[in-house]
Amino acid sequence: MKKCPNIRLDNIRGKSIREIVSLGVKAQYMNKLIKILIALYLLCTGVSYASSSPVSAKIVDEILFNGIVVKPSSDVKGVIEQLGQPLKKITKSIQNKITGIYDEITYLFYDEAEIWIYTTKGLEKNWSKVSEVVITGNKYTLPNNLKIGLNEEEVTNILGNASMTQNSTTWYYFPSDDEPHLQLILEFQNRILKEFRWSCMP
């Protein structure tokens, strides 16, 4: 397996993304570059980083790629088939740069859960996927004995150290294969887990 080329921080500090790309970094290394750029930006916002054990990393990977509560490949109909009719449903259109194609985000609100579904229409077949799952209570079961109300130590015992934390109350977990679109975001209040978010950015 080819290794990502060595990128010195003093070579990219102060440069635009276009200038960084012009340094000769190949397209297959862009995911690693994205993470470096995010890290540099967040260093100014009180973010800290940590590594985790291989066992914990495997658990995080499984949760990220398998999703929580609903199947990540579900469309709106599929989510409703799995969870029932929502308390509230909101659909918003998003402009697509390609003529004849448009995107939508549908928000399904349930008791102690919120599901976002991203849909692209205008293709031969509509394409949908779950982009966010937000859990705020224990009505829905989370994997690996995770649940709202655990303290920080109990969460760490299951997931290991967060990939990064912000202001000590927001924990981020990323997959081990450098896939930048998937993440878990955990919100704590008084060191107690209050919100568990699975996110897959479009």
Describe the structure.
With 202 residues, the protein is α+β, with helices and mostly antiparallel strands. Helix content is 25%, strand content 30%. The chain has a nine-stranded antiparallel sheet with strand order 1-6-7-8-9-5-4-3-2, with helices on one face.
Salient structural properties:
2 domains; protein yfey like fold; 202 residues; disordered N terminus; single chain; 9-stranded antiparallel sheet; alpha+beta; globular
Total helical elements: 6
Name given to the CATH architecture of the largest domain: Sandwich
Helix content: 25-40%
- In the CATH hierarchy, the third-tier topology of the largest domain is known as protein yfey like fold
User: Structural class of the helix and strand makeup?
Assistant: alpha+beta
List the helices and strands and how they pair.
Elements (H helix, E strand, L loop, with lengths): L8 H4 L4 H5 L8 H13 L4 E3 L4 H13 L9 H8 L4 E7 L7 E9 L2 E9 L5 E9 L16 H8 L4 E3 L3 E4 L8 E8 L2 E9 L2
Antiparallel strand pairs: 1-6, 2-3, 3-4, 4-5, 5-9, 6-7, 7-8, 8-9
Characterize this entry briefly.
By secondary structure, the chain is of the alpha+beta class. Helix content is 25%, strand content 30%. The radius of gyration is 19 Å and the shape is globular.
